[in-house]
Design a protein that fits this description.
The chain is built from nine helices and nine strands. By secondary structure, it is of the alpha/beta class. α1 links the parallel β1 and β2.
Length: 252
C-alpha cells in the first residue's frame, strides 16, 4: 500500500477560492492522503463550504481563536499521521499528478525533501503572470539563507527520515524559518524540474509586500538563527536582491 501523505492547510476567509483548492486535491491521482485543514476563525463562509464535502480524508478543525497561518499549520501538523508532509494554502492549486510525481521522485532519489516548479498566477484568472518559478538548484542550509526557494505549495518532506518541523508563531517569515531549521538537519533538498502547482499571487499577500518586511526578514537571521547584527544584515541584503529578481517582471 502507498504511504500516507498528510496535507497541511491553514484557512482564513478563503470562501472565494477554497472550492478550487478542494477540487485540486480531490483530483489527485495519488489517493492515500489525509487533509488536515485548520480554520483560523474565518469570518466568511469558508467553514460551511469545506463541510459540504463528505470525504472522510478531509479533516477540518475550527480553531478557538485566530492565531495566524503559522499557528494554524502547527495545529494541523500536530494531528498529522502521514509519512510525507505536503503543504497547500487555501487559495493555491495542485496539478492532478502532484502528489504521485513528487513522492515517486523522492523515493527514486532517496530524498528527504523535494520541491518542484510552480506557476505564478493572477489571483482571479489563474493565468500565469510571471515566468514559472523553477526548481533549478539543490537546496542547502547555506543557499537557503540567501533566498527562500522553497514554497509550501511545491515542497514535500519525509517525516520518517527527518521528523516533524513546526512553524514559529512569532515570525511573519515563518515559512523561511521552518525550512532553515529543517535544512540544518539534512544535507540537501532535491529539485524536480517540472511544473506541478499553481501559486495564486494575491495583491494583499504579505509575502508580496517586500518593502514592508525587511525588518521581519532581518529577524529571521538575528532572532531565529542567532546571527550577529553584521551577519544578519548581510543575509538580509542578499534576500532583498534575490527577492527582487524572483518577482520582477524585468527578469522573468
Amino acid at each position: 500500500m502507498k504511504e500516507l501523505i498528510s496535507i497541511i492547510t491553514p484557512s482564513y476567509n478563503s470562501a472565494e477560492f477554497i472550492e478550487e483548492t478542494i477540487q485540486s486535491v480531490l483530483n489527485q491521482t495519488y489517493e492515500n492522503w489525509e487533509w488536515l485543514i485548520s480554520d483560523d476563525r474565518s469570518k466568511d463562509n469558508t467553514v460551511e463550504i469545506i463541510r459540504k464535502y463528505n470525504d472522510p480524508r478531509i479533516k477540518l478543525q475550527v480553531l478557538e481563536q485566530n492565531g495566524g497561518a503559522g499557528n494554524a499549520r502547527n495545529k494541523s501538523l500536530e494531528r498529522a499521521q502521514g509519512r510525507y508532509i505536503a503543504f497547500l494554502d487555501s487559495d493555491d492549486l495542485w496539478y492532478p499528478e502532484y502528489l504521485e510525481t513528487m513522492t515517486n521522485f523522492m523515493q527514486e532519489n532517496n530524498a528527504e525533501l523535494a520541491y518542484c516548479n510552480y506557476s505564478r498566477c493572477d489571483e482571479h484568472t489563474m493565468e500565469p503572470i510571471l515566468k514559472d518559478f523553477e526548481a533549478d538548484k539543490i537546496v542547502t542550509f547555506s543557499n537557503l539563507l540567501k533566498t527562500c526557494r522553497l514554497a509550501p505549495v511545491s515542497t514535500i518532506y519525509d517525516t520518517k527520515r527527518v521528523g516533524k518541523f513546526f512553524f514559529p508563531v512569532k515570525s511573519k517569515r515563518e515559512d523561511h524559518v521552518m525550512w532553515l531549521n529543517l535544512l540544518k538537519e539534512i544535507p540537501k533538498g532535491y529539485p524536480l524540474k517540472k511544473t506541478l502547482a499553481k501559486y495564486r499571487m494575491r495583491e494583499n499577500s504579505v509575502s508580496r509586500k517586500k518593502q514592508n518586511i525587511i525588518k521581519d526578514q532581518y529577524l529571521v537571521y538575528k532572532d531565529f538563527m542567532g546571527f550577529s547584527t553584521l551577519k544578519s544584515l548581510y543575509y538580509t541584503a542578499n534576500w532583498a536582491v534575490n527577492g527582487f529578481l524572483k518577482y520582477s517582471k524585468i527578469f522573468n
